[in-house]
């Protein structure tokens, strides 16, 4: 794959006086107010160069007494139990993509009633509105993010800079939605059962087999887990799947166990401990459970946070995020984008003999799509671009009729680069109409005739693409160097493959982005399936991952150390964006 290089003349950070920035946040521990901001560096032979200022800041943050106190608390048996309980209590709340309102409501409740936040520090609302964003509705639906703010010192400092009233923020996020169930259960049944099965037994293959498992976790009327014999069985941890199988470990079956409530619940633990220990960043920190990552969620949560308009393909970054850390990945920096279409071919309004067929119209379209050559097939050296007809289904005829009323076609196009993604879309999208027209033409029907077959676009999804190239942005450097210092999840080289994550939106918008995993599982399987499961892993690994995350986040945002000195932010206070706001936002 030919890498996509960012021209060396392209500014990756908004211009800002380092002296003004550092003076505004209290200077650094050496009193050197003229020290420049750390710089984006190169990735050389797969390894990112680390600006010495990033490494130095990370060491100071990690050694801070308050962070050491948090690590000490995380390492206790009481914290281990609390983290497991919270994970189980949250993951059982049915939270289908785009219908996350119940999950968001419970997270909002805990933020205020249990984690110590003021209502004003909870930035998202029950109706899905996010003050300051210019994207509130995605695919006609509200966006149920759950975000809390840890206010930094920067906004109250002299000469503080903002983007249309929004001061700089560092975002840390992981999603709260699941693939299964696909439909929100009724209010009378808001929870999914959490079934337990011996690892020595075969994985279930049907919903009926899963339902037949009699052993499950119990919860009281307030939603708290009951610590009975089944709890004791499920809450045991193991280092590996082999030791779990030999030691009587169990599968914990519940959709979202790993993807992504294990990570998201860990983030919420971080939010609680930051508040408890009065952690004071320089830039504001937002910790968010995001909506709409899975299935047809269309990255709705991130599109709201970053003001990403999918019709324009650009993000306004209205809240002025200067860096983003995703918590459901493994360090990937290349992000696969996609165009996804759900098209419905409909039979004539008044069915009769000798009229066009919805089935044949869809078949004609599929035949045309099958002949399309992607950019990577047409030209050597072009990044791999693919497409697939993911599903073709038809509605059964009405009683007493042999006319199929409609057929639905799902087409998915993917690439790491926006230009090749757009190119294959330009080849395929007109074929929906071409297949329809060909079927109508067979019967001599005019396009808009009452006895012609018709076409409806039911849904369109966009995940913007991003190729990192040889750039080591500030978030990547912070994530990389803290893995080395903490000695957890170290990688020999930056992954050359690609992922499709929430990170697609901020990275495409231009915001420095990196991702990691926070949870610890001894084993797991069934991601995105009704039979998703996991087995509890070593809690010490989870503590190490949280320690790394805390350090990287505060290294980036800047941090007031316990000795009253300040680690300066690693990024300039004006975030990147690919579209400008046309109005002043209300902070």
Automatic annotation (TrEMBL):
Highest taxon of source: Bacteria
Keywords, comma-separated and alphabetical: Signal
Segment forming the signal sequence: 1-23
Name the record gives this protein: Peptidase M20
